[in-house]
Amino acid sequence: MSNDIMAPDSRPISTTSTEKTILSRFLHLLSAQGAEGAFSALFFLYLSWLDAALYGEVMYALAAGAIVMKVVEFGLYYPQVRELGAADRSVAPQIISRVNVLRIAFVVPVMVAVTVVAIYRESTPQMAWILFFVSLGIALGSLSETFFADLRVRGRQDREARIKILSSVAAYGYGFGAATLGFSPTVIGLFMFVGGSVRIICGAAEYWRTYRASPIRPGEWAVTWQILKVAAIFASIDILGTIYNKTNIFFLKNAAGVEGVAYYSATWNLVDPVSVLASEQLLGWVVFPLLSALWWKDRPSVGPLVQRNAQWLMALALPIMFFLAVESEFLIGLIYPAEYKDAAWMQKYLVWTILLSFENNLFAYVMMVAGAARVLLTFAAFVTVLNLVFNLLLVNSYGLLGGCLVIIFTKLSMTCLTVLYCQLKFGFLRAVDFLFPVGLAALSMVLFAVTQPLAGLHVAVGLTLGFYFVILWQLGVRFLGRFPRTEPVRPRKTGRSSHEAQSADNQV
Question: How does pLDDT run across 15-58, given as a tens digit for each residue?
């Protein structure tokens, strides 16, 4: 091992936060996600061919594990990152310890509940053990998120990525080996426990190397309770977000039957992962920790960073939306049976949720960093009510189209609220900031309209995307600035002084 790996990381958070580009950090996490996706897909495909019953049991256990993960996380990530961003390095172990205590406090009852379910509700001991071990492995992985959050604030997503890749190799390598050697289904079901153990052990090792402190410290219950109350706000925001993103499914079932739900889900499963990739891995795991540090240590650089993120997110969302919309029939036809043809026209509508999700999540994270979590919760509650109204008015009247419009109008409402709040509070944006991406998109659409009758759909799509990215590559830096970096940048005048921006900061 190199000296860099073995030596304690003694640099302050504010220094390490300015060493690498946002894109570099994102690519580290993307590599880990790619490894996880590839290994898991191969393993689960192998299981489905090896033993359909075992595959079904593992899928059932993973669904239960997703609930375990939500309970253990309980919105703790956001206040932890915000506190670490504002804190001096010397108090970071105390913050991490408090979050560890809370997460362990959640793991114990949720695993007791899983054990009770496994013993009294499952039909076979084999299913019970698989459910228990898969849930325990996911719980351990959730515990490790406390250490990963610290790495993100310090700009060490490279170390997080290495741990996650190692975890994926260990988990699915073990699973493949156990299945190939003919071990019992219960032994095969330990694969998530193996992966979770690697994450928690390596995460704790990174923590020890950095701080030389215990990851769990006794005392400070009053402060720990305060963190829990703040985390409840973020957990509520997450829960409401899940609700208003899913309610149209239930209304669609009544209006269009399970077939309608299947058609909608077919295209949603192509569109939504793009939004998740940006909102969770780029914004949540890279930009949010960075903003948390800069908000307290270099407030003037926050405005230009938010502005350029908003510009580049739009510039990158538009070609993705274009491709998924104009090639929807080809993509749906390639992936799904012929009866899913309705999913193709729905995709032309649903692509708008990509741009709305990109921008909404960026400004929602700004609100979290700025101490406006309660306001954000109010917005989420209001939009949830609005979502129910949209469902009642649109789904029964317009069926599948209504289901698409519901999610678009819901995300549009939330985006308008978060952007408007940040604009009125901080004045990050100007209308001219978005002239270049919008103008380039319009010019590209003209090119597409001209070339499609002459060259055919697929060639026209390729020419249009090529034109778009060449112009973006050549002129994007001039009009949008370089892709956002973590280095502090010279603030643009917004009509508000740094002192005024700081005085506008609210406490959660």
Answer: 344 334 666 777 776 777 777 877 877 887 777 677 777 777 77
- Chain-centroid distance of CA 165 in Å reads 18
Q: Residue 213 — φ and ψ, nearest 5°?
A: -140, 160
Cα–Cα separations (whole angstroms), residue 186 to 5, 128, 190, 192: 36, 9, 7, 12
- CA geometry: angle at 341 spanning 336 and 343, to 5°? 85
Measure the CA–CA gap between 446 and 172, rounded to whole angstroms: 48
Of residues 62, 36, 56, 47, the one with CA closest to residue 179: 47
CB proximity list for 162: less than 8 A, separation 6 or greater: 32
C-alpha span between 189 and 425 (Å, rounded) = 51
Q: Is the pLDDT of residue 2 over 70?
A: no
**What does the DSSP 8-state code read for residue 505?**
P
- Token reading at 190: 């330990």
Structure tokens belonging to residue 164: 């996650």
Q: How many CB atoms lie within 10 A of CB 393?
A: 14
Could you tell me which of 280, 481, 439, 296 has the C-alpha nearest to residue 371? 296
Of 90, 378, 376, 358, nearest in space to 213 by CA: 90
Q: 3-class SS at 76?
A: coil
Q: Which residues face 21 on adjacent strands? A: 485
CA angle (211, 212, 213) in 5-degree steps: 85
CA–CA gap between residue 220 and residue 223 (Å, rounded): 6
- φ, ψ dihedrals at 21, nearest 5°: -75, 155
Q: Between the CA of residue 288 and those of 9, 183, 361, what are the distances in Å?
A: 22, 43, 10
Instruction: List 485's β-bridge partners, or say none.
Output: 21
| DSSP bridge pairs for 148 | none
Residue among 308, 238, 275 nearest 75 (CA): 238
| pLDDT bucket at 506, cuts 50 / 70 / 90 | very low
Q: Are 487 and 18 in contact (CB under 8 A)?
A: yes
Distance CA 212, CA 233 (A): 32
Residue 461: closest CA among 348, 350, 326: 326
Give dist(CA 209, CA 206) in Å, integer.
5
The C-alpha torsion from 85 through 87 and 91 to 93, rounded to 10°, is: -10
Q: How many residues does the chain have?
A: 508
pLDDT digits (tens, 9 = 90+) for 105-130: 888 888 888 888 778 776 678 888 88
Average pLDDT over residues 281-288: 70
Based on its alpha-carbon atoms, the radius of gyration of the chain, rounded to whole angstroms, reads 24
Q: What is the pLDDT of residue 22?
A: 66
Two tokens, residue 140: 């351990």
Helices 352-369 and 77-86 meet at what angle, rounded to 10?
Answer: 50
